[in-house]
Amino acid sequence: MSSPQHVPVLLDRVVALLEPALDHPGAVLVDATLGLGGHSEAVLGRCELARVVGIDRDPAALELAGRRLADFGDRFTPVHAVYDEIPDVLQDLGMAEVSAVLFDLGVSSMQLDLVDRGFAYAADAPLDMRMDPTRGRTAAEVLNTYPAADLARVLRVYGDERFARQIAAAVVREREKEPFSTSARLVELLYDVIPARARRTGGHPAKRTFQALRMEVNDELAVLRRAVPAAVDAIAVGGRVVVESYHSGEDRIVKRVFAGAARTDVPDDLPFVPEGHEPVLRLVTRGAEKAGPDEVRDNPRAASVRLRAAERVRPGRVSSPDPREGAA
Asked: In whole angstroms, what is the distance from residue 263 CA to residue 194 CA?
């Protein structure tokens, strides 16, 4: 298997945000969404005192990234896990805390490039969409077993699909004739259901449905709700968490965790903040940063990126956001 070389979104900015936390001996970055290893390669090259623990749920990604980063020797440690398992990963490695955690969310370019994984709608392939193909339900199972109301909810919440109810009804009707197994049949159904006028804007008519199915299959928002607080809890004082999101629900979760930990818990009218009640985090980015027009032109995936970063300023645990966050 060859190793595709894609430049990660906002690479220079991400590394610049991580560098202050990785400028000391023994610094460790957890690249929680390793993918092809582009971010890890840049960090290892520019932050010579740091080592990287690279987490990915996809065994194929770990293999490709491992080959790409082999020259860095024991400065790179690959781990097969999901990114909400950060506490378990660190415990297994004997690490009490780390210097930084990076998330680059969503589907990786490798997964889109491998046709048989079913993430892309441009080619006919089995409807799988599991980031870890060794476990969990497939997109075909979701399409063939979910009631119409649940399918509509998935399409609406995760895909912002205006025609969610109509698509769900059509899927239920068609699966009674024959279960869904490949992407081409689903794409054909979407062309039939979505009105021609709506297909003229907003990109490919299958884009939203495929995104929604992928997020449901991999339980991405629920995993993220657990992962971001776990990442904050894992970093030392002076450490940073950097997150690139590509979906409004993802960014909403990150924003709530960061903002909540960056506020004090004392009343506004108190003239001072008692010791131990200071915020846990300092926001490093002002709101969510976006990619510039040149990068969006060269890399269309950058169009939807939202980048946030926060730094730990004192010890203390943070709480997970309400499970309804990201579902609005």
From this structure: 44
Distance from C-alpha of 68 to C-alpha of 93, rounded to nearest angstrom: 22
CB 321 within 8 A of CB 261: no
Q: Please determine, for residue 1, whether its predicted confidence score (pLDDT) is greater than 50.
A: no
To the nearest whole percent, how much of the chain has pLDDT over 70?
86
Q: Are strands 281-283 and 235-245 parallel, antiparallel or unpaired?
A: unpaired
The amino acid that residue 131 corresponds to is M
Look at residue 301 in the predicted model and tell me its pLDDT.
Answer: 83
Strands 306-312 and 235-245: antiparallel
CA 81 from chain centre, in angstroms, equals 14
- Of 326, 248, 246, residue with least CA distance to 291: 246
Does residue 88 carry a pLDDT above 90? yes
* End-to-end Cα spacing for the chain: 40
Closest CA to 242 of 252, 231, 234, 233: 231
CA distance 186 to 268: 53
In tens, the pLDDT along 183-216 reads 999 999 999 999 988 887 767 888 899 999 999 9
279: which 2 tokens?
């915020």
What distance in Å separates the CA atoms of residue 257 and residue 318, rounded to the nearest whole number? Answer: 8
List the structure tokens of 276: 């131990």
